Structure formats: C-alpha cells, structure tokens
Amino acid sequence: MPAARRVFLLILALLLLLLLFAVPTVSLAQEPSPPSPLADAARQLAAKIAAALQPREALVLTVRNISSLNAADTAEVRRALEADLTARGFYFVTGRSGVPRAPAAVEDAKPLTEIRLTFSENLEGFLLIVDVPGRDLALMQPVPSRPLAVTRSMNDRPTVSIQKELIWEDHEPILDFSAVPALPDRPPGLLVLGSEHVSFYQWLEGSWRLAGQHAIDHARPFSRDPRGVLGLNDPQFHVVLPGVSCRGSLNAALILRCAPNSQPWLEGDTHHLEVLGQQVEGRNYFEIRPSEKLSASPFQGEYYSVVVHGDGDDRAWLVAQVDGQTGLYKKNRELLATFNGWGSDLEQVATGCDNRHAVLTTSPGDWTTTDSVRAFEIDGTKAVPVSPTIEFPGPIVALWDNRVVVRNLKTGRYEAYRLTISCGK
Amino acid sequence: MPVLFALALAASLVATTRPRYGGTLRIEMRARVEAHDPREIPNDSFGAGDVAAAASAGKLVSLAFERLVRLDNNGQPQPQLALSWQSDVAKKRWEFRLRPGVKFHDGTSLTPATVVAALQRQWGNDFLMSVSGDALVIESKQPQLDLLERLATGRSSIFTLPRDGSGIVGTGPFRVAEWQPRQRAVFAANDDHWGGRPFLDKIEVQMGVNLTQQLVDFELGKADLIELAPDQLRRATQDGARIWASAPVELLAVVFPAEGPAAQDARLRQALALAVDRAALQNVLLQKQGEVAGGLLPQWLSGYAFLFPAAADVDRARKLIAKSSPAPAPLVLEYDAADPLARAVAERVALDTSQVGLKLQAVTAGPASQAAGKLRLMRVRLADLNPRVALSSLASTLSLGDGNDAEAAVTPEQQYAVEKAMVDSNRVIPLVHIPEIYGLSPLLRNWMPTRWGAWRLEDAWLALPEQAAPAGARP
Fold it and tell me: In this predicted complex, what is the ipTM?
C-alpha cells in the first residue's frame, strides 16, 4: 500500500474516531476540574485565623455543619484549613482526649486553643465561621458560589436501562437542546433553545464559550409554560415554537431566520405524520380540532403530548390529556384503556431489545416537586414498566425523544439531560 | 371535614405535571389594605396588624405591578422589566435596557420615560434619572451598591397614570378588576403579559378576615389560601390542609424605653435577657415554627445568628437581680391587643421573669408611641434581604442608633460586630423569629413563593377536576 494512501486511511480513521467520541464528550464531565471555591475559602479563613492567634499555638479543631454542604465538601474544607494552618506553624491535636499530632513539647509549652469551625449558610451562599470559646473572636469567610453537584444514575439489571447524563445548565429556561458533533475544523458544540433566543456554544480551550446567539422574534408572548423543539440536521437546524418557526445554519456563524407559523406541529412517531396538533395560542397544550381530514383520528381534543404506538391494526395513540389522564385510543376514537399516575409528557423510544419500543413517561406532580422518567411497554391495554424509575432533581419541563430538561428545585437552574436507553441484559 | 376531604380526593385524581388554565383562587387575609397603589404601601411599625398590613399590601401590589428587577430565591437580582443592566466601576452610573414588547394594562407600551416618571414619583430626587436611547440611566453622587436590591422592592414598582383618569396601572401578570378598599379585591389574568398569561383566571381576595374565620372558611371549601397562626397548625393539618411556612421574616423582641429606671439599669436588662426561655416560646407558642432569636437577624439571612447565645440562664439572672440594690421596680410590658401571639409571648415572658425574682406585668397597648418607662413587645418585619440594609433598618426601628454603623458594614464579620454591639447593650432583647404560615387547598398547585414569602401566583394553578368540585363551594 502506498504511503500516501496509508496516511489518508490513518487520517480517515482518526476522523471517524473523533466523530464517534465527539457527541458523548459534550458534557460537563469533559470540563477540567475548576479550582474549588470551598478550598479557596478555607485557605483565606486560615489566613485570618493565623493573623488572630498567637504563632505556633496548639489547636483543637471542632467542626459542626448547619448548612446543606455534604460530608465530602466539609471534609475538603477541613483538610484545606488544617493543611494551611499547619504550613503556617500551627499544630493540631485530634481532640481534648485524642492522640496528639503535634510534638509533645509544643503541647506542653502552650495550652490548647479550641477553635470551632461551623459550616453555615445565608441567603447568598455558604459561610465558613470560626469562633474561639472564651475569646471575643469570630472569623468568617463567605464561599463565593455554591458548588454544584452533578448527579448521575445507573441502573443495575433492568429490562431496559436508562442512564441520564447532565449536558448543560442555565439560569434561563431551556426548551430544547442538541449536541453538535465535532468536525475536523469545528470543535464539539451545543445548540440550546431558550424561550427568547437560540444559543450556540463551543468547547474551546478547555471551556464552553458562547459562539453565537440569535434572538427569536415573536409577536405574541409565549405561554408561561413554553414549549419548543429544536432539530439538528448538521449544519442546518430548525426550531418550532408556538406561532413561530425558524431555520438556522451553523456553517460559518450562527444564522437564524424566523417567521410566523400557523402550521400544526408534528407529534409522535415522525415516521407516521398523522398526528397534527396545533398548540393553542398562549397556552401550554395542543389541540386536534375536528375536521374532515382527521375524521378518523383516534383522538380529538386538548392534550399535552402524544405518541403513536404499534403498527397496522394495532396502531394506537397514547395521549396525555389536559385532564390529567393518559388515554390509549384506537382509530375512530375508541378508548382502549386509561392510565393514571403518569405525568403529562410522553415519548416513544427504541429500547434496543428485539426492535421493541417503549414509552417514556414523567411522573405526576407540579413545579414544586421532583420528577422522574420511567419506560413502559404497552401490552394490549396494559402498561408494563420495563425500567426502573430515574429520578430528577426537579420538575421535568421538557421531554423530547431522549432529551430531558429539568428545573432543579435546589439551584433554580434549568438542567438539560440526555438519556441513553439500552436493553439491559 | 367532608368538604376538604372531597377536595383532597378530587385533587388526588388529577395527575398532571403541566399546569392547567382556569379557575379562581380565593384568598383570605387579616389585613385591610387601603389601596393597590404602590406609592401607598404602609410602613410597618409596632404590632402585628401593621406588619400584616404592610406585608399584605406589598403582596397584592406585586400581582399587578412589576419592578425592573426581581430577586430570586437566593436574593440575587434577576431581570424583570429590565432585561439587562450595567454599571460603571464606581457603581455611580447604572444603565438599564428594558424588556421589549411590555405593555401596561391600559395597552400603552413600557418606555424608559414611563419608568423614569414612575421611579421619580416614588423616590423623589434621590437620583438623577434620564433616558439614553432605548435605555434608562440612573446616576448618583454616591456609589449605589444596593441599587438592584432597591429596584426590586415594592417602592420601585413601575406604573403609569392613564390620561383618562381611570387610575394607576401596572404591567403585572394580573390586573385589578375590582377594588373595594379594606374589604375585597379581584385580580384578573393579564392575557398580554410579557411572560405569558397566568394560569389562573382570577384571584379573589377577602380582606379583614380574622384567623379563626379564615380557618372555618377553609374547612368549608370557601377559601383556597389562608393565613394561619401557630396554634392553628394542628387543627388545619388534621383537616387535610397543606401547610407552608416561610423562612422567619419577623422579629419579636422586647424593647426597653429610651428613658426611665429600666433603661438605665444594665444589670436589669441583662437579667431579663437571661430569664426568658426562648426555646419554650418556639416549641410551645410557635409550635416549633420559626426559630429562637439570640440576635436581630435570622440565621437564614445572616448565616451567623447561631453565634448569639439564646439559652436561658436562670441562676445567673437570679444572681444579677439579687445584686441589684435597691430591688428593681416592677416592669410593665406592653403588647398589641390585636395580636394573640404577642399576648401569649408577653405572658410567658412575665412568667419567666417572675422565676428570677423580677416582677413584670404584661398589658395591652394601642398603636400609640411607647409610653414612658414601659417595655414594649415589638414585632418587626425584615425590611430587606440584604443583611446590611436589614440591620440598619432594624436599628432605626428599634431605636438602636441611626443605623449608620450597619450601613457601613459590608462583610459578614463587620455586620456581626455591629449586631453584637446592639445585642450586647440589651436595650432590645430578641425573642423569636417568626415565619409567615399559610394553609393551602389541596387543589392549589405550583405554590412557589420565595422563601421569605413573596407570592408568585402567576405560576399557580388549580387542579380542578371537571366534576369533582363540591356544588356551591366554588364559583
């Protein structure tokens, strides 16, 4: 094989590898570890302590946590504080009756000083406080920002395995998102649809950077519970929002052109474009209105989401209705079954188990409660759970295919997750 | 109660995550609010009545009027009518860009000029305000570190006064549909709100309803959202109500007079501070709501409140009284007659002080200024979410100085030092920090107030099953 051809094949293989791994790397996990604000705060507090106490004092450190910091965080602070003070010449003993870690001579020479470290928090964030009993001394160090915990869940041996991966988070509402694979001349990226704009981020020099942002013009206010979808056909993409549709491109820069749109949304299985739902203006639900064209439609009325299930004579619609019930309808609006205890978002996904499909459902609740996703297979008129329940730290505000958007109840931030669904053997 | 049980059952049948539109939320409150004009929000001062009126007026005003900035649950400024802002390094010049497409309830558009006019009517000439293109500029000779927080308060509401004299209007998610001063208000959904139409069709507010009647109405299915006193919690819970309590937002404290023997006797003041069993107040009278107060600011706001000792020390208090010569004269503690909780606390304080040999008589008082020589049980609401501003305001309200020291305290350490000096004087004896407590109908969803109790009813909705509501209970 000629050398040039070998080089070409090698480059091609590398490109394929790059493409293969580009999408999974669009996650927070790719970011290098940032400097810990907790450890920094501990070091600053140590400097204050060193300035307030006598040099080379022997210290007994007692710790209590009245904040929402977890044990790992408090341990990190304690380690950083002890290390910094030790470096400054102070000595620690483990407790009044504990084994001394300082030379005995030092402890003999000076009385022990108890310093009490309290992990506290106020409206703005965490606060490290050290006070010394018997002395009118209280030293405080705010922690600039709240550490964010990224949670992941794995399932052990389910029929269908669902893994969730945190992709992005933002203060502003996220309606939908799409990972943008890397190309030889383009780093990995992420398209994020908000209620007011589309943003394009790229992974450059070890961090996510805003590469472009485009406002979405719309004449009428959206619903308070806005819904929108984003579809990527790289480098083109499209956005559908109530009354507005946009076409965009990622070629050189982010380009977006929006126009009023009164066409119905396409719902459910995109291979069967039979569900034509119209989002009701200013509302968060869709409606299928009676018409001759849809006279045989399995369902007519208001709904939050719908999936098309089965083939041929077994084809049925699973509809999350605005009355809170989920109905299974066959043609001519025959109600086969009603499922209670589900939320208002449904999606159909391939499970990887013998070409079978499952329906992802959210759980009931409101915006004050956490939410979850679970996969069910529809067997006749029964819904059989085929996956464990995957918990999220807040209400799910969007479920599109394998993309989930959650409003984290603790942080108030919107979090975009990607679900990986596979057959759990 | 059968009605509430039926409502709870009906609500349980509605399993949905996405909000539903429609319905009327019925609220009852003690306060009698005179006007929905943000310029007329009353100052809170002495008793629970004043505190409740000021807080309730602010809540009602916020339904119809918005500000440039709102505070999120961590007290951080977030865009409301202003979409973005920037300041110079000195924080003396601030520029705000307004959210496009915002309309007042009379259909006129929000402009920088209307914002300037509204703020000038509330702030006077504290700042130089001008319009620069499509932006609003606020300038001051002094650095304005807290300008965003100030813009987020009810006294920075944005309004316009239509030329037809139809009355003040705002841009809020609800518009005022009916207003009977001190009695009743009806708010209707603003279909054109920039953030989307609220889910509720209407909010009806009945004012001047005492707490006992509120609970009865709640049990009968005539109200969806009521205020609760701590001693009503057990009954409300047994009746199926959902209980929600804010973070503690009010301070209940004994305030010594500026003059008289008690004011001069530091030992007496210290003894009284040591005699009160705050834990009993919190456990029994507050039914474990709120928190004991050793300091002026609550823990959730300052982060350092736990450093202030709050435990009773009866032996030490006795010794301090025993050392007094001559024996201290009996004290008189005034409390607000209209506030049952204040009465219970005052009587408990009298009991505690008697245990250490100090005579104290609890008597009712009107809202008049503090009678000479008498102690006063005061209920003060936190004026701000910034600890520095809140402390300064408390200092002024409680006659603990002019608040300048607190104003200058920027770091938590400095604020602690200022607060400690105030507390150590024992001129004010903090007792407990009190939350707002509500009883919620099982039908009410997305009840997501801020942790300090500001309503967010634009996102609330009612899980009204089509046929499950009891006949006659709901319009």
Answer: 0.81
Residue B124, phi-psi category: left (phi > 0), alpha (psi -120 to 50), beta (remainder): left
CATH architecture assigned to A160-423: 6 Propeller (2.120)
**Cβ separation of A285 and B385 shorter than 8 Å?**
no
Indicate yes or no: CB of B466 within 8 angstroms of CB of A323: yes
B344-373 burial, b if ≥16 CB within 10 A, otherwise e?
A: bbbebbbebbeebbbebebeebeeeebeeb
Q: Do β-strands A207-215 and A197-204 pair in parallel, antiparallel, or remain unpaired?
A: antiparallel
CB spacing of A127 vs B412 below 8 angstroms = yes
Residue range(s) occupied by CATH 3.40.50 in chain A: 37-142
Q: What is the mean pLDDT of residues A119-145?
A: 89
How is residue A99 annotated by DSSP?
-
Exposure string of B377-395, with b = 16+ CB inside 10 Å and e = fewer, is: bbbbbbbbbbbbbbbbbbb
Q: At the fourth CATH level, which superfamily is domain B2-64+172-246+436-462?
A: Periplasmic binding protein-like II (3.40.190.10)
Does any CB of chain B come closer than 8 Å to the CB of residue A300? no
Q: pLDDT-based confidence at A268, cuts 50/70/90? A: very low
Interface of A with B in 170-229 (CB under 8 A): 171, 221-226
* Cβ–Cβ gap A138/B199 under 8 Å: no
pLDDT (tens digit, 9 = 90+) per residue, A200-229?
A: 999 888 888 999 999 998 888 888 998 888
Amino acid at A16: L
Query: Which residues, 6+ apart, have CB-to-CB distance to A27 below 8 Å?
Result: A165, A166, A167
pLDDT at A100: 45
Q: How far apart are the first and last CA of chain B?
A: 20
CB contact under 8 A, A129 and B19: no
pLDDT at B402: 74
**A30 falls in which pLDDT band (50, 70, 90)?**
very low
CATH of A37-142 given 3.40.50, 3.90.1580, 3.30.2320, 2.60.40: 3.40.50
Q: How far apart are CA B364 and CA B131, in angstroms?
A: 52
Residue in chain A closest to B445 (alpha carbons) equals A366
- Looking at residue B473, its amino acid is A
The pTM of this model reads 0.79
Residues 6+ apart with CB under 8 A from B141: B92
The arrangement of strands across the sheet holding A316-321 comes to A265-266, A276-279, A286-288, A301-309, A316-321, A326-330, A334-339
Cβ-contact A420, A409 below 8 angstroms: no
Strand A244-249 versus strand A236-241 pairing type: antiparallel
* Domain ranges in chain A with CATH number 2.120.10: 160-423
Confidence of residue B16 (pLDDT cuts 50, 70, 90): low
Tell me which CATH code domain B250-434 carries: 3.10.105.10
Joined together, the tokens standing for residue A343 give 């939320």
Mean pLDDT of B407-422: 93
pLDDT single digits (tens) B255-304: 998 877 777 888 899 999 999 999 999 999 999 999 999 999 999 999 99
Determine contact, residues A361/A376, Cβ cutoff 8 Å. yes
Q: What is the pLDDT of residue A32?
A: 42
Q: Where are the domains of chain B?
A: 2-64+172-246+436-462, 69-156, 250-434
B69-156, which class in CATH?
A: alpha beta
Check: CB of residue B399 under 8 Å from CB of residue B239. Answer: no
**A-B contacts at Cβ under 8 angstroms:** 134
Q: Which two tokens stand for residue A247?
A: 């076409």
d(CA B149, CA B88): 17
Can you name the residues that pair with B138 across neighbouring β-strands? B94, B129
**Mutate: best of B17, B296, B455, partner A, most A CBs <10 A:** B17
Average pLDDT rounded to a whole number, residues B1-27: 67
